[in-house]
Amino acid sequence: MGQYLARRLLMFVPVLLGVSLLIFGLMRVLPGDVAMMILAGNSGEGSVSQAQLQTLRHQLGTDRPIYEQYGRWIWGLATLDAGRSLKTDQPVLDEIQRRFPITLELAVLTGVIATIIALPLGVVSAIRQDTWLDYAMRFISIAGLAAPTFWIGTLMILAMVRFFDWIPPLGFSSVFDDPVTNMQQIIWPALALGYHFVAVVSRMTRSQMLEVMRQDYIRTAWSKGLRERLVIYRHALKNALIPIVTLMGIQFAFLLGGTVIMETIFVIPGLGRSLVESITYRDYPMVQVIVMLFALVILVSNLLVDLVYAWLDPRISFQA
Amino acid sequence: MQRDTSLVSTPSLAGGVRAFARLRAFVRGSPIGAVGGAIGLIMLLTAILAPVIAPQDPYRINYDRLFAPPGARFLLGSDEFGRDVLSRVIYGARISLYVAVLSVVLGQAGGAVFGIISGYFGGRTDMLIQRVMDTFMSLPALVLALAIVAALGPSVNNVVLAIGIVQVPRAARVMRSAALMVRANQYVEAARAVGCTHGRVLLRHVLPNCAAPFIIIATAALGIAILTEGSLSFLGLGTPPPTPSWGSMLSGAGLQYAEKAPWLGVFPGLAMTMAVFGFNLLGDALRDAFDPRMRQR
């Protein structure tokens, strides 16, 4: 187990290096000279002298060869120094440290709520197949697959303003400072974002459960006279879970992308909103680190999915 | 831009009696798929015929009629510049469909090329391609698309490119497993034995036999492409204004004037949901028809 973990963690390195090359490359294709942009601001390019440009380029390091810039950046990341934001001139990692927990909270809360809703929905829909309950649930799920998350979020705000004359409190507060306000702010984006997850996962749960419920061992469990709850949850659901967990892993990546949108709509100061702002401002040190973090979170979630497999199915071992 | 949309041609239904019979069989065999196909067709016609259908010029500004609620003159109301929402929603179908179809063709074809090469040759080629795909897959699609659009600059064709690239890894994975299965067939071995080159085997034997999974995943990808275009435009990094796009219609005005003009936030999203809904139904029906093993009850 320990060896398996070590090997998996080691496998992170090439993928992260790949991502770093990808994002570093993309940020160097960005049209326009960053130094020029910072100096000129709104006053136009004519007001900038060559000497000023040279000095700033030197400060930013953009006058060095590309491979040297890349090497410095990677070395910086390895030593936990990702440079300064071009926008705020603060160390990038300070800002990330503030924002990352917020995005993680949103993503994890969304995942947890959605899973709690999706699994029972799928199970109920399967054991009550072709009843109105099943049809209602399938409609909800098909609608959730089609409705864009940003529209759900927009409708949510619209409904709050229109029918309840209420919006989530302004000025974000963290869970640790003020958990109540924090919940009022973060539960709505979590619900809006979770809808798609619920739709996908409950659909899969339904079809998997239908598959498993026809197996011989389920008939055996029934004929042994086991209680319904035991048959369904212990015998059927647990065996149906592996493909569902796989799908949940894939959906988590999607959900993480969705935080970008939700944070923008609901004005939550997480990584996603910062990503959009940094892209607009061409704050490339910031963009690069945020993208790397997203990749890291997905790698970790993939690893967790694989660990859950082994817990669900003892036949899967980590020796191979 | 508007001329480009006409590149998306209507699929010819007039392929003689046989094509019609096949269509009828499909409609009878899978009514849900037919509904999906009909929605797709309606969207296609809306996009092509936008100038004919739209009651007003989607760009015309009416300063005397800002935020007009839905009524006789503006069926779905007017926006913050007094532009007709209905006409903008109708024209929005153009961008949405243009980006979706083109990016799917680009992305799925790219994925198919990498996937089939990867599955057919195996070994080190396979290894290399799969590691590159892993790298792309370790980012949320939306984040990758954002980064690509940021690098290339916001324009409709760059959005097509970004959404296309984002689709490549998943398509490659599916097509790789399809190619692996095809490769195991004896006719591939036979073709090699009679002296066909790798290129000929790939083109004439492997590719046609991978067509079914390709059509299935490409159709399913249409809906996702529409959603991604919407998300990018919503974040202000997709279709640049003033071109009417469902995503950007929602982002600025839809949210900002939620209280004053709720119709701004409702109709573009509804149109998008319907479009994605249609393509999803069509994708499910095609999957059931071509691949009974993947059928969902």
Provide a quick synopsis of the model:
The complex is a heterodimer of chains A (320) and B (297). Chain A has 320 residues and is mainly α.
Any overview of this molecule?
The complex is a heterodimer of chains A (320) and B (297). Chain A is an all-alpha fold. Chain A is built from 12 helices and no strands. Chain A has helices at 2-29, 34-40, 50-60, 66-78, 92-127, 132-146, 149-164, 179-213, 216-223, 228-265, 271-281, 284-312. In chain A, helix 5 (92-127) packs across helix 8. Chain A is globular and about 85 Å long. Chain B has 297 residues and is an all-alpha fold. In chain B, 72% of the residues lie in helices and 0% in strands. Chain B has helices at residues 2-5, 16-29, 31-48, 50-53, 85-121, 123-137, 141-152, 156-183, 186-193, 198-209, 211-234, 246-256, 263-290. In chain B, helix 5 runs parallel beside helix 13 (263-290). The longest helix of chain B is centred in the middle third of the chain and has 37 residues, at 85-121. The two termini of chain B are 42 Å apart. The chains are: A mainly alpha (320), B mainly alpha (297). The interface between A and B is large, with 52 and 47 residues.
Name the descriptors.
heterodimer; A: mainly alpha; globular; B: about 300 residues; mainly alpha; 13 helices; elongated
Major sheet of chain B, described briefly? Answer: none
Greatest interface by residues involved:
A-B, 52 and 47 residues
Query: For this entry, what is the oligomeric state of its chains?
Result: heterodimer
Distance between the termini of chain B: 42 Å
Low-confidence stretches of chain A: none
**Spans of at least 5 consecutive residues with low confidence of chain B:** 1-15
- Average pLDDT of chain A: 84
| SS class of chain A | mainly alpha
The percent range for strand residues of chain A is under 5%
Counted by DSSP, the helix tally of chain A is 12
What overall form of chain B do the CA principal axes indicate? Answer: elongated
Share in helix of chain B: over 70%
